[in-house]
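FAQ: What does the model actually see?

It sees only this:
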Amino acid sequence: MLSHTVLLPILLAQAAYVRRHVIELPEPPGDRSGAVGDGPPLRLLIIGDSSAAGVGVATQAEALLGRITGRLAGVARVEFDLVARTGAKTAEAVGWLDDLPSDQYDVVVTALGVNDVTKATPLSRWLSLQARLLDRLKNDFGARRIVVSGLPPMGQFPLLPQPLRWAMGRRALWFDKHLHRLVAARPACTPVTIKLGLNDTNMSADGFHPGPSVYAAWADEICGVILSDPGLLDAARRKA
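And it is asked to produce this:
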């Protein structure tokens, strides 16, 4: 804590510089609701921030949604909804649930936390909001499996200069550690972590969002969870 206090003027100056000079990439075009594939119906919801929305690639086909549905389409008819917005914090995602139709989802993928880290949401409040989000997805939307994306290694984001990169990286690790504990207490939830180092070669042009190969690796981790849960497809077959 002392090191952060000493560095505070530098961190604030660097954060202001980054905000002024960041490349603002758009959310990629493509369907956010629809169905792909053949087989038993599998209802999928992806909810989150700009990474869930696919910022950093040209189309939804290259983004998280397209990567997941493309792989699952070989074993199921994936009926999907993507609810995501650049800059979203967990509190906003919780609010979105009030406006969603009361559809039942087999799988929900969440991607939230980076904006809570950068916008200084207190850890205790963030965990409370995460708990509320996960519990509502399970209880109000019938989610059989909730795949919770862990915080990315922000200490590797090329956009962030040192020591801001170090400070954001430490805070993200702290949030992620507590998120895993929260998820572990909920049997319907599974955490995933991208097992890939981040650098200029695989991040997007802004140095902050994933590039195509990172989205692909992230989707592989998520699909691994889904495909290793035989109950999901068994339930889908019973609905068919």
